[in-house]
Amino acid sequence: MIRVVLPGHLRTLAHVSAEVQVHVDGPVTQRSVLDALEAQYPMLRGTIRDHVTQERRPFLRFFACEEDYSLQPPDTLLPEAIASGSEPLLIIGAIAGG
Amino acid sequence: MSGVRVLVGTHKGAFILTSDGKRQKWDISGPHFSGWEIYHLKGSPVDPNRLFASQCSGWFGQIIQRSDDGGKTWTQPGTPPGESTTGPGGMPKAESNKFVYDVSAESGKPLTTHMWYDGTQHPWEFKRVWHIEPSLTDPDTVYAGVEDAALFRSTDGGKNWHELSGLRGHGTGPKWQPGAGGMCLHTVILDKSDPNRIYIAISAAGAFRTDDGGKTWRPINKGLVSPYIPEPRAEVGHCVHHVAMNPSRPGVLFMQKHWDVMRSDNSGDSWTEVSGNLPTDFGFVIDVHAHEPETIYVVPIKSDGEHFPLDGKLRVYRSRTGGNEWEELSKGLPQRDSYVNVLRDAMAIDTLDKCGVYFGTTGGQVYASADAGDNWAPIAEHLPAVLSVEVQTLP
């Protein structure tokens, strides 16, 4: 299982209190993890990626194993530690404004 | 005994205030959607326990929430957690937070440009829902006014949204320009006497009307004069802040423009200024008494550069003559050191007798008058900045 840590506002929206786990068939990438996340928590559709362009919302960043994957192509493989579930994928909201 | 439910949207969540018909003691629930901007909440006139809320965030985009129990519990329509988002054919089951401009060949309009602050052309971009207007007859039909300006409609209780693209495609779009708050469609007025007639207003484009259920629209801004735009009497481009109507007289409209309070007696075909003796005719809110269609309310704000009351005195002004002659209402309102604003959707009026008048401030206060404005008292005092106030009169 893939572990995903959501920012606080999205935890509230998804009715979860801590990190979530999703199952991914095939290569573990930003796209496949987010597809699985949105299938399991459909209320998150459009909140992390734009509905139409599927591009990352500008004030969100993706971190895996202390590396910033935000600017990587969405089909880039995530580290093995993410695929194995030993490390979570962090989705982080920019700290900006109120 | 009848009661009232006041729906308050703020910068950091929604609050629901309830009271019995006396409107003296209030219970406050919330914050709902804590930490999110709630631009607007409104209940269905057909089913008062059905509420819609516009929840948004600069980080996470637009969400539509719905309650079917008067605000006790909320869900995003059509997207229960843990269920597949697609049906047997692979098509999405519901996309309640998806607002996409209709550019389809069958029903849509090309996504053109509008005027940017500097006068150049800028592409249309969806940002948020400013105003939700439930149908007067069908609890599953609801309209949404959005930024960048367009009107959307859902006919399945908010699960799916479709643009009424005739408005954005009216042809004057390149002359529409954002106001300081963005290019927002903030007012939607439905006409119970004519289901095909809808009024909308956009800052800064002006007011528009459809007489065919949203297929075609025409600007209704004749008589508006805005000296601060290139053509002061232009067909479009006016910064209309809010429009109000008493349902018993659907042809009579009242408008708070950027500057100027206006009225129309012919469904918006032409307007005349009724600012009269107001100490300043800049402001955002305007509303109409529930039972006296010539009694209207505004909250004068000092100027476009100074968004607070004159002299630090928070005062509502009431006209019992449909404008021109205004009286100051200040009993119970702060009369010193008050430098709050009252935003365009932050006033509402219940239908009890005497009718209650409510408004919220950017300082987090919600004030209520249970006697049509003669006396006021705060019913909430320390909320986040108030973006919108609506009220439901309950049986």
Name the overall outline of chain B: globular
Estimated helix fraction of chain A: 10-25%
Q: What is the quaternary state of this protein?
A: heterodimer
The main sheet of chain B comes to: 4 strands, antiparallel
Number of strands of chain B: 29
Strand content of chain A: 15-25%
Tell me the total number of β-strands of chain A.
Answer: 5
CATH topology of chain B: Methylamine Dehydrogenase, Chain H
Shape of chain A: globular
Q: Given the structure, what is the number of helices of chain A?
A: 3
Which runs of chain B of at least 5 residues are low in confidence (pLDDT < 50)? none
Global Rg of chain B:
20 Å
Distance between the termini of chain B: 7 Å
Elements of chain B, N to C (H/E): EEEEEEEEEEEEHEEEEEEEEEEEEEEEEE
Known CATH architecture of chain A = Roll
Strand content of chain B: 35-45%
Tell me the span between the first and last alpha carbons of chain A.
34 Å
In the CATH hierarchy, the architecture of chain B is 7 Propeller
Counted up, domains of chain A total 1
Biggest chain contact: A-B, 28 and 25 residues
Task: Give a written overview of the molecule.
The complex is a heterodimer of chains A (98) and B (395). Chain A has one domain: Roll (Ubiquitin-like (UB roll)), CATH 3.10.20. Chain A is 23% helix and 19% strand. Chain A is an alpha+beta fold. Chain A is globular. Chain A is built from 3 helices and 5 strands. Chain B is mainly beta and 395 residues long. Chain B has a single domain (35-78, 92-339), classed as YVTN repeat-like/Quinoprotein amine dehydrogenase (Methylamine Dehydrogenase, Chain H, 7 Propeller). In chain B, 1% of the residues lie in helices and 36% in strands. Chain B is built from 1 helix and 29 strands. Chain B has one helix spanning 165-168; strands spanning 3-10, 13-20, 27-32, 37-43, 51-57, 61-67, 113-115, 121-123, 128-134, 142-147, 150-154, 162-163, 184-190, 198-203, 206-210, 218-219, 240-245, 253-257, 261-264, 272-273, 286-288, 296-298, 316-319, 327-329, 347-349, 357-360, 366-369, 377-380, 386-394. A 4-stranded antiparallel sheet of chain B has the order 3-2-1-29, with no helix packed on it. The termini of chain B are close together. Classes of the chains: A alpha+beta (98), B mainly beta (395). Chain A binds chain B through residues 7-10, 12-15, 38-43, 45-48, 50-52, 57, 59-60, 93-94, 97-98, and chain B through 11, 33-36, 57-63, 76, 79-85, 95, 97-100.
